[in-house]
Design goal:
It is built from 25 helices and 4 strands.
């Protein structure tokens, strides 16, 4: 049969079964319209889109779930959309081809033309697998990324190969989809072979002695995924999968190595298939996307979308994205956060391959031993909480009584006795030391910290008794939970030192608190120590020196009243001298002058002290109280810190 006869038969068959609405000679012109005029134009467009996609994939997965939950939701959506489009487009084209044998008015045509369930399937597949892909990408190293990006040129070559043969025999509207479908089936298999060769030649797999070591190494890759409980928990399951895979691959020359490659193939095939689906979207002609949103039609060029269909499509997409996808993702996140059984199931899966133990010093113990010791510590400390609470309340009462003694000191300070005593100490050079001693005596009056010291001594005794009880309990717990793992694989999940476990539960700060405050348990020692702290701070701020220097100001002020004192003394002396004539007049005048001078001087001193008290007493009092408050805060902080360290 001639070539022209064969062409006529093909055209007749095509018209008969609905495959071709125009002669084959015209088909080639239509096909040429679908093809770009420049041979490399489509490849350059494909390559540009693929490079942009690869770059975004690389950088997004590096930050995936590391900071914000919204990035997880957005990344999964962006990765799933092209997969969904590719799947629905392929189903649409195949559906159009199958429906050519049915009447459009028939019920069978209407039932088969529905794309609802297939669209749901592709949406679920795309969202689920995209989620796993992004997590797996987060753990990729540089060599794995290089192997993955080889899918871009390999898929293009596979597509061009199939398209070259299909375009010569198939209707134009079927060519692109059939070429893409064939490439999606072949390319993942080719990429698996390339991936295996690439990894086998360039990667030296570590030889792990135990599976748990491999799992722990894989978990490190996913440590940054902390913004989502769903992502974090899924990454832990993937770490188990990847750890088992790495362990098996390390067993070079054994049957385990084969199973390791098989595990690689399972997940890598899914990754490469989805990558091919995404790349397929870059090769679908823009006009072909219209078929996704229109009734099934075998026309070579779909008509443009009407405004009403565009509005309907965008409305449906917005509703599904915001009110179904987003809420479903949020519900799954909350479910994982509040379902401990998920974490338990993962832990049980790990137990199947490795025994989890705890290490205290150089000895291994059953899981939960450290928790039992912590509980025993808590039970021992519970007996001393009442004493500590009373101690914290008593410290305020003690300082309140101490502050009341400040007024006793100021009453003495602003009195004639205090004034003349300070003058006497000034004359012999002991003024500052005397003022410190006097303030210290005043503050210690009545031993304000007597009750506090008694409670503190009781607290230390109670702590020491609790420490002894805890040590006995800890020894029993450790003896009962001790393990000898021998050669079995183990994973140390928690570790501490023997010293931290056996040492008393009471920190050294708690035991030494009374000695830091008062040098021991001698009566009045705490009051003396607290007073010493206050005096030290007052001296450091030069408050007592300023008070001593005020004496010179008062003395200088008396000069102003000296004339009045002399005048008053002279009048008094003259009055006394007039009583005794002769020599008595002179002696009487002298004695009277002395008495008058003293009386007038005392009166002036009294007046100046009262004036000084009105001017400076409140300020002086506030300065002392401020320092006392600082010491109060420091000592209370010591008690709180000791309490926190005891609880730890």
């Amino acid at each position: 049969m001639t070539k022209r006869g064969k062409q006529a038969i093909r055209e007749a068959d095509a018209r008969k079964y609905g495959f071709l609405a125009v002669p084959l000679s015209k088909t080639r012109s239509i096909q040429a319209a679908h093809e770009p005029r420049k041979p490399d134009a489509r490849f350059l467009a494909y390559l540009g889109k693929a490079v942009i996609w690869g770059t975004l994939t690389f950088y997004i997965t590096k930050e995936f779930a590391s900071h914000h939950f919204w990035l997880v939701v957005l990344s999964v959506l962006l990765f799933s959309i092209p997969i969904v489009i590719c799947g629905i487009y392929g189903n649409t084209i195949r559906q159009i081809w199958r429906l050519t044998i049915f009447r459009k008015q028939g019920w069978l045509f209407k039932w088969l033309s529905s794309r609802f369930f297939k669209s749901i399937f592709w949406a679920l597949w795309a969202l689920g697998t995209s989620f796993f892909m992004l997590i797996q990408f987060h753990g990729y190293n540089d060599l794995e990324w290089m192997a993955f990006f080889l899918v871009i040129p390999v898929f293009w070559l596979a597509y061009k190969f199939f398209r070259y043969f299909i375009a010569q025999e198939i209707a134009p509207y079927l060519v692109t989809e059939m070429a893409l479908t064939s490439a999606r089936r072949l390319c993942p298999l080719l990429m698996l072979i390339i991936h295996f060769v690439f990894m086998a030649q360039l990667v030296k797999w570590p030889e792990y002695l135990f599976i748990h070591e491999a799992i722990s190494a894989q978990k490190i890759k996913f440590e940054g995924l902390v913004s989502s409980a769903l992502v974090s928990e899924t990454s832990q399951f993937l770490a188990i999968y990847n750890g088992i895979k790495a362990y098996l691959l390390g067993q070079i020359g054994t049957q385990n190595s084969f199973w390791g490659w098989l595990l690689i193939g399972a997940i890598e095939f899914m990754i490469y298939y989805n990558a091919c689906a995404i790349l397929s979207c870059f090769l679908i002609p823009p006009t072909e996307f219209r078929r996704l949103f229109q009734p099934a039609s075998h026309t070579d060029t779909p008509p443009p979308l009407s405004p009403s269909r565009i509005a309907t499509t965008t409305t449906l997409f917005t509703f599904v994205t915001v009110f179904i996808y987003l809420y479903t993702f949020k519900a799954m996140e909350e479910w994982v956060r509040h379902t401990p059984a998920i974490a338990d199931s993962r832990q049980n899966a790990e137990v199947l391959v490795v025994q989890k133990v705890e290490q205290i010093g150089d000895v291994f113990y059953k899981k939960g031993t450290i928790a039992q010791l912590t509980e025993a510590r808590f039970n021992a400390l519970r007996h001393v909480e009442h004493s500590r609470t009373k101690l914290e309340n008593q410290i305020d009462s003690a300082f309140d009584r101490l502050e009341m003694n400040v007024d006793h000191y100021l009453d003495w300070y602003y009195s004639l006795v205090g004034e003349y005593t300070r003058i006497g100490k000034l004359l012999i050079g002991e003024l500052e030391a005397f003022m410190i001693e006097k303030l210290e005596q005043s503050l210690m009056y009545g031993d304000p910290f007597q009750d506090f010291q008694a409670l503190l001594d009781d607290l230390v005794s109670t702590h020491q008794a609790a420490a002894h009880t805890y040590q006995e309990t800890a020894q029993r717990i450790m003896q009962a939970n001790r393990l000898d793992p021998s050669d079995n694989p183990i994973q140390v999940i928690q570790q501490t030192t023997l010293q931290d476990v056996i040492n008393p539960i009471v920190p050294h700060d708690v035991i030494s608190l009374p000695y830091r405050l008062g040098g021991g348990t001698v009566a009045g020692a705490v009051t003396a120590a607290v007073t010493g702290k206050i005096i030290g701070k007052l001296a450091g701020k030069n408050i007592l020196k300023l008070a001593a220097s005020a004496l010179f100001k008062i003395t200088a002020g008396k000069v102003a009243g000296a004339a009045a004192s002399v005048g008053a003394g002279a009048v008094t002396g003259a009055a006394i001298g007039s009583v005794a004539p002769g020599a008595g007049t002179v002696i009487g005048a002298a004695v009277g002058g002395i008495i008058g001078g003293l009386g007038a001087g005392i009166a002036v001193d009294k007046m100046l002290i009262e004036l000084e008290e009105k001017i400076s007493r409140e300020q002086f009092r506030n300065e002392i109280l401020t320092v006392i408050q600082e010491v109060r805060t420091e000592i209370k902080a010591q008690i709180v810190i000791d309490h926190a360290s005891s609880a730890d």
